[in-house]
Structure formats: structure tokens, C-alpha cells
UniProtKB/TrEMBL annotation:
PANTHER family: GLYCEROL KINASE, SUGAR KINASE. InterPro entries: ATPase_NBD, Carb_kinase_FGGY, Carb_kinase_FGGY_CS, FGGY_C, FGGY_N, Glycerol_kin. This is Glycerol kinase. Pathway: Polyol metabolism; glycerol degradation via glycerol kinase pathway; sn-glycerol 3-phosphate from glycerol: step 1/1.
């Protein structure tokens, strides 16, 4: 008998990947396509839904072909995705009525400010664990209903379906038969009660969202349906689903309360497992789900930073001081140690712990001697400085003594320079795993769990292996002084 395989779809902000895994969760074959970005207006970020779908299907087929595998060998598909990105489509045709509004999009900043002025913020936070910010789906969905001609009436008639990218892909993969999401993605909409585990009627009223547009919410490991005829050479069950940061928690095996992972892709998302307890943050972190299995919710505290690897992309595509991302580390290593340049990458405002949607970026401390090397160093350092802000907020909320080991993943963790600086600044070890595609790994794990091939989260799951530990080398006083300089720079860009 041939070995059962698992296929993970990781639909990220800048690319779509499909990764074929063995039942032991070892990656077997990868296919990846870049996703075009659209910036129709300052602060707006959109994706073309047909690009997302076409790349998903193409990479699924390519990963199978590269792995020399057939669809009938698949025990399941796991979907993981960029979160919060909002789509609204016509149930009859399956076509989106507008481009997807991406999580980074700030067009609803004024709507969120108005809700805060009306005193709605405490209700939103109490029910969803989130802060009233344009980052989340609710105001994006309301914007589509109000700004696409005829959308609100069609939604109220039940003709339109809302979903984050996971739901949209599921709809397409099942040939329009299943409109569902998982609890982790639902938890990022600002419409879902994370303690009740259901859509919240008070929030639906507040954001003026008709219930008829919403998907059904399921566990992260569940029977989500099977692929429609003609997509692959056999019908394959879709058995796992989780937002990318939640899947990365599973891929990083952060199964125990107190364990922390930080993913460095376009943005950076640091999540702490808080077990059965939905910890309320006093430091402007988010309370969210780690995952939901068998109806049981495991919670997390999350710090979300909007720009991490995107700062490196800007060095390449905006400033053009590097030819590829990897060059950033080489350049940073050549920077003059005597110069202290700070780069606050608030291109789309600042996320945790500041939540200032109107802040914009700045480079401070320039002198005549400043050149590309100092700016590259400041860009890489900014990611570590922001991580330290999150870790300090988390420590204050969680109350644990000492500094937990940070498990890191994502494209930017390829930068040894950045990972060493991160360990130096935190004064704590930074662990990089052998498999850095932890998001896809988590999605494959969920599909394998549902298929009965893998055990539930716990010591019996053995997919995590250390590749390299970065140990702090910098004196604490120096790290603290650098961080204080960063905090001063941030103060200069805050608008409130
Ligand atoms: N060697 C490197 N040094 C610094 N940044 C890097 C390096 N390699 C990749 N990156 C950054 O990592 C990001 C891509 O990571 P990825 O996890 O694929 O992101 P996403 O899932 O958000 O699309 C890009 O923003 C890129 O600039
Ligand atoms: O596409 P990524 O990996 O940058 O992740 C995006 C996040 O899910 C947004 O919340």
C-alpha cells in the first residue's frame, strides 16, 4: 500500500504555496507563486480574488506533480491563510463582487475611530478580544456592503457570501457546496465571540452585518467537504483549516501554556499559548484563539506588527539599495557601529502595542555619514525592536517570571544577522526550527489529525526539531540603551 500524503495550502499575503507532506509531516514537494498587490489609493491594499484562486489551484497541481504523487494518495488537504482579508462573493456565480480588502488596508480607519467615539470599544474587546482597528474584517465587510452598488440589498436577500481567504478557497474547492470557516479565522473578523464560540448578534448589529452572509464556523480539524470533480484527478477531503499564525503555533509545537512563537513574513505575529484561559490584555495585545479542536478552545495572546519582511522588500523595491532580500543582512553587517539610525516602518500605521492607524514611517538619526548600510541595519533592527515591545507587553500580561524561549519562523528568519540581533536585544535564546515552513506544517498536521494519522497536540507529536539556537551575546545595558533609543523614535511618529 502506498503511503498516505497530506497537502497544505498556505495562501499568504505575498505568495501562495502548496506543500506536499508525508504522513510523518516531512515536506516532500513545494510549489509557490507570487501574489500581485494592488494599492489603488494611499493606505489601501487589495488582492484580486481570481489571482488567489488561480495560484492556489496551480500550486496544488504543481506540488503533486513535483512530488510524483496523485490526488488519490492524499489523506487530506489543510488550508491556512493570511487572516482578516475580506471577500464577498455572489453565491450563484461564485465570483467576488469586488477585490479582496487585505488585512493591511486602512480605508476604514475613520469608521473605527467613530465607533471608539461612540463608546463601542469595550463591547468589541470584551466579546472578540480584539481592539477597534481597521486591521480586522468587520469594518472592511461593512465598507463593501456600503460601497459596492446593490451589495447590501443582495446580502440581505441571502445572495452574497462573506469569507476570509480560507472560506473563499473552500467554496471554490468544493465547487460552491460548502460555506464554512474555522474558529481561528472567525476570531479575526471582530464579529465572533471568542468565549461563546459563535457569531455575536450585538456585534452584527453594531457593524450592520446581515447574518445571511456569514459562513458556518467549524473546528480546525473537521470534515470541510471534498474537492469538486475536475479540480484534481480524484476527490480529496479538506480536513484542516486555520489562520496562518494559528497554524504556525501548531507547526512550532507550541502546545503548552507559556510557549511562544513569532512568525516573520510580511508582518510579524507573536503568539503566546495561554491554555484554556482567554487572558485579557492590559497592554494592548489581542486575545485570540490558538486553535479549536473537538469543540474545545485553546487561547492565545497575540502581538501583531504590520511591517517586518515588508521593510526588507521596501529596501529592495522602494529604495533599491539591495538586489534581493538576503543582501540586507550582508549590508547591515557593514554598518558603522558608531552611527545610531532608527527606522520606524509605520507604512500602514503601527499595530501592537500602539495601535495608531494614522502613524506613518520615519528614518531618524541621519548624518552626512549615513548610507545604505546604516539604513539596512536600521530596517532589520526595527523588527527586533518591535518584537521586544511585544515581549515586554506579553510578560506584563502573562505574569510569568523570566523570558521564554522564542521559536521563530517565516521568510525573514533566513537572516542570521536579524536573528542574532533579536536574541541580543531580548536577552533570551531564539530557536529556529529545521522546518521553517511551520505554517504549512500546521495545516498539514490538522489534516493528518482529522484523518486519524497523527495524535492530538501534545508530547506524542514529534515534528519539531531545532536547526539553530541564537544565544544572546550583547551586554544587557547596551541592549536596553538601544531599545530606549528605539522607543524615543517611535514617540516621534505617534499621532495620539
Ligand atoms: N534573507 C532574508 N533576510 C531578510 N528578509 C528576508 C530574507 N528572506 C526573505 N525575507 C523577507 O521575508 C518575507 C517573506 O516571508 P514569507 O514568510 O514568505 O511571507 P508571507 O507569508 O507574508 O508572504 C519577505 O518580506 C522578505 O523580504
Ligand atoms: O501573510 P502573512 O504570513 O504575512 O500573515 C498575515 C497575517 O495572517 C495577517 O494577520
Amino acid at each position: 500500500m502506498t503511503e498516505a500524503l497530506l497537502l497544505a495550502i498556505d495562501q499568504g499575503t505575498t505568495s501562495t504555496r502548496s506543500i506536499l507532506h508525508g504522513a510523518d509531516l516531512a515536506p516532500r514537494a513545494v510549489a509557490q507563486l507570487a501574489l500581485p498587490q494592488h494599492y489603488p489609493s494611499p493606505g489601501w491594499v487589495e488582492h484580486e480574488p481570481e489571482d488567489i484562486w488561480a495560484a492556489t489551484l496551480a500550486t496544488m497541481r504543481e506540488a503533486l506533480a513535483r512530488g510524483g504523487a496523485q490526488a488519490r494518495q492524499l489523506a487530506g488537504i489543510g488550508i491556512t491563510n493570511q487572516r482578516e482579508t475580506t471577500l464577498l462573493w455572489d453565491r450563484a456565480s461564485g465570483r467576488a463582487i469586488a477585490r479582496a480588502i487585505v488585512w493591511q488596508d486602512r480605508r476604514t480607519a475613520a469608521d473605527c475611530a467613530a465607533l471608539v467615539d461612540r463608546g463601542a470599544a469595550p463591547l468589541v474587546t470584551a466579546r472578540t478580544g480584539l481592539l477597534c482597528d481597521p486591521y480586522f474584517s468587520a469594518t472592511k465587510l461593512a465598507w463593501l456592503l456600503d460601497n459596492v452598488s446593490g451589495a447590501r440589498a443582495a446580502a440581505e436577500r441571502g445572495d452574497l457570501a462573506f469569507g476570509t481567504v480560507d472560506s473563499f478557497l473552500l467554496w471554490r474547492l468544493t465547487g460552491g457546496r460548502v460555506h464554512a470557516t474555522d474558529a481561528t479565522n472567525a476570531a479575526r473578523t471582530m464579529l465572533f465571540g471568542i468565549r461563546a464560540g459563535d457569531w455575536d448578534d450585538d456585534l452584527l448589529r453594531l457593524f450592520r452585518i446581515p447574518r445571511a452572509v456569514l459562513p458556518e464556523v467549524r473546528d480546525c480539524a473537521a470534515e470541510f467537504g471534498t474537492t469538486a470533480p475536475g479540480l484534481l484527478d480524484a476527490a480529496v477531503p479538506i480536513r484542516g483549516m486555520a489562520g496562518d499564525q494559528h497554524a504556525a503555533m501548531l507547526g512550532q509545537a507550541c502546545f503548552e501554556p507559556g510557549m511562544v512563537k513569532s512568525t516573520y513574513g510580511t508582518g510579524c505575529f507573536l503568539l503566546l499559548n495561554t491554555g484554556d484561559v482567554a487572558v485579557e490584555s492590559n497592554n494592548r495585545l489581542l486575545t485570540t484563539l490558538a486553535w479549536q479542536l473537538n469543540g474545545r478552545r485553546t487561547y492565545a495572546l497575540e502581538g501583531a506588527i504590520f511591517i517586518a519582511g515588508a521593510a526588507v522588500q521596501w529596501l529592495r523595491d522602494g529604495l533599491r539599495i539591495i538586489a534581493d532580500a538576503a543582501e540586507s543582512g550582508t549590508l547591515a553587517a557593514q554598518a558603522d557601529p558608531a552611527q545610531r539610525v532608527h527606522f520606524v516602518p509605520a507604512f500602514v500605521g503601527l499595530g501592537a502595542p500602539h495601535w495608531d492607524a494614522d502613524a506613518r514611517g520615519a528614518i531618524l538619526g541621519l548624518t552626512r555619514g549615513t548610507g545604505p548600510a546604516e539604513i539596512a541595519r536600521a530596517a532589520l533592527e526595527s523588527v527586533a525592536f518591535q518584537t521586544r515591545d511585544l515581549v515586554e507587553a506579553m510578560r506584563a500580561d502573562w505574569g510569568a517570571e523570566g523570558q521564554p524561549v522564542l521559536r521563530v519562523d517565516g521568510g525573514m528568519t533566513a537572516s542570521d544577522w536579524t536573528m542574532q540581533f533579536l536574541a541580543d536585544l531580548l536577552g533570551a535564546p531564539v530557536d529556529r526550527p529545521a522546518v521553517q515552513e511551520t505554517t504549512a506544517l500546521g495545516a498539514a498536521y490538522l489534516a493528518g489529525l482529522q484523518a486519524g494519522l497523527l495524535p492530538p497536540p501534545g508530547p506524542a507529536v514529534a515534528h519539531w526539531r531545532l536547526e539553530r539556537r541564537f544565544t544572546p551575546r550583547m551586554a544587557r545595558a547596551e541592549a536596553d540603551a538601544l531599545h530606549a533609543g528605539w522607543q524615543g523614535a517611535v514617540q516621534r511618529v505617534l499621532t495620539k
